[in-house]
Amino acid sequence: RRDKQNILNATLETRTREDWIEGCQENLDNILPFIREHTDTEFIIFYPPYSVLYWEQKVLSGELEDILAIYEYSIQTLLQYPNVRIFYFHDEKDIIENIDNYRDVCHHHPKCNRFIFECIRDGKKELTIGGTEERSRDLHTYLRDLDYSLYWEE
Questions:
Q1: Which of 76, 80, 127, 150 would be a feasible disulfide site paired with 86, CB 3.0-4.6 Å?
Q2: Which residues lie below 8 Å from residue 100, measured CB to CB, with a gap of 6+?
Q3: How do residues 6-25 score in pLDDT, each as one tens digit?
Q4: What is the DSSP string of 52-79?
Q5: Backbone angles phi, psi at 88, to 5 degrees
Q6: CB of 64 within 8 A of CB of 58?
Q7: What's the pTM?
Q8: Tens digits of per-residue pLDDT, 31-70?
Q9: Cα–Cα nearest to 52, from 120, 135, 152, 154
């Protein structure tokens, strides 16, 4: 493994996909022991609906592909455990395209929390093994091609 401090100090220009994945793995290493040790516990993990303005930042910084790659990596890793359920809201266009749902680029309105809760309660928006790559590709295409200027007009 590479030195953690070097990864943390890497600038966007020098940060590689490997650096992104390694950082993601370090985060997973914090929770995977609990998942492995508590097989009788159901772990529910969700990926929240970040606004289009968050995604625009990722497009403009050149981080979009790397961010989506670490999400895909973390999802594939977590879905290997039968006691993990994952719910995915990154591609909820009705939410992410409405910037009135946000107080900043990431933090959504409580009504979105209710929607997330209801989906988890009802088993909607759940990811399964084999069902993630196409959604990830579709999200990438959507975010790459989105006309973000529509959200900046008065």
A1: 127
A2: 109
A3: 544 555 557 788 999 999 99
A4: HHHHHHHHHHT-HHHHHHHHHHHHHHHT
A5: -125, 120
A6: yes
A7: 0.85
A8: 999 999 999 999 999 999 999 999 999 999 999 999 999 9
A9: 152
